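A quick aside before the break. I want you to see a complete sequence-to-structure record at least once, exactly as it would be stored in a machine-readable document. Don't worry about memorizing anything.
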Amino acid sequence: MMKLGAHQSISGGYSEALKRISNIGGNCLQIFSSSPRGWNFANPNDDEIKKFSILNSEFSISPIYFHATYLINLADDGRIGHMSKMSLINELNLAPKLGIKGSIIHLGSFKEKKQLPIENYLIDDRPQDNKYKVLINNIKEILDKTPKDSLFIIENAGNRKIGQTLEEISQIVKDVNNKRIRLCLDTCHLFSNGYKFDTNKELDFFLAKLVKLEINNLVELWHVNDSRDEFDSGHDRHDNIGQGKMNIDEFKTLLNHPQTKNFPFIIETPGFDGNGPDKKNLDILKSLVGI
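That is the input. The structure line, written in tokens, reads:
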């Protein structure tokens, strides 16, 4: 069975998100563990965890992922970096209790006036506060303090942030060197950075690049979003499927290609009614399967 789902609100509790995804026809799910607007560490009680597990035994929504707060910056060596670590340690410890696979994470930025290629941060003679070393050490510390069955899922960035290119992600994966690292690839972010695959040939080329960079086996899921901005724009603004600048064939190719069709696909679209990921977006994707 193809896995198609969406990010859904946890308003009213985690269990409400299960009902919401079921109501729009999804069978996999992404949620925040707490409000993404601040450093709010989730701490559900045993009754809430039990309620979620019992309800999901009825709905069979799987897989389920957390999406980490957008405040995170793991390249920061001050308060933001510390809070980022504490937030992810809390979230990755909570995930297995709920049957959630792990957290999808935007790594942050180096906070330069102009984001430099990641190789500029690998030079040995930079100061001891090398932000790249801070990033790698923070990720390693989070992994050391969280369960082995909880995945740390890096999402490719859509703008001038860490992980904007596949080469950057590959370097980070090699330097962290931990089997719990996985990848989430976002179609909008890829499109904004010069990657597209309207045809099987183009997608084959993209997948071959993943192989060359030794990250092909790390892909855990895809975020399926259209883009409000033009190809290779460097901007990260999601649109509804078919309403943005991306060719609808790109989604059709991704959903039907033998090497990608079995991944979970999760939408983060604005919604045709403006209220977030909805049934219409999922129905459009479903209509592209098998054609």
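Two observations worth writing down. The chain is about 35% helix and 15% strand. Residues 4-288 form a domain with the TIM Barrel fold (CATH 3.20.20.150). We'll return to this after the break.
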